[in-house]
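[agent] plan:
  1. take the single chain provided in the ticket
  2. run structure prediction with default settings
  3. attach structure tokens to the ticket
  4. add a short note for the reviewer (M.T.)
[agent] executing step 1
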Amino acid sequence: GLKTSLKEYIIQAIGSGKDARGQVNLLLEIDGFELAGKGTASDILEASGMAHLNAINRYLLRFK
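[agent] step 2 finished; step 3 output follows
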């Protein structure tokens, strides 16, 4: 039931070749608060989802 707004989205490569991983850093706005999220995985979509959930969990722990 949370409404989020993506304010910043940064993708970085960690390593190279077959062992490369993607790191996503993002900034979400939730109820007027800006929260950072970070996720790392071999699949950039998975890293993005992890970063999004990381920011939401920070919000829930701090404000709910």
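[agent] step 4 note for reviewer: The first helix runs from residue 44 to 63.
[agent] ticket updated
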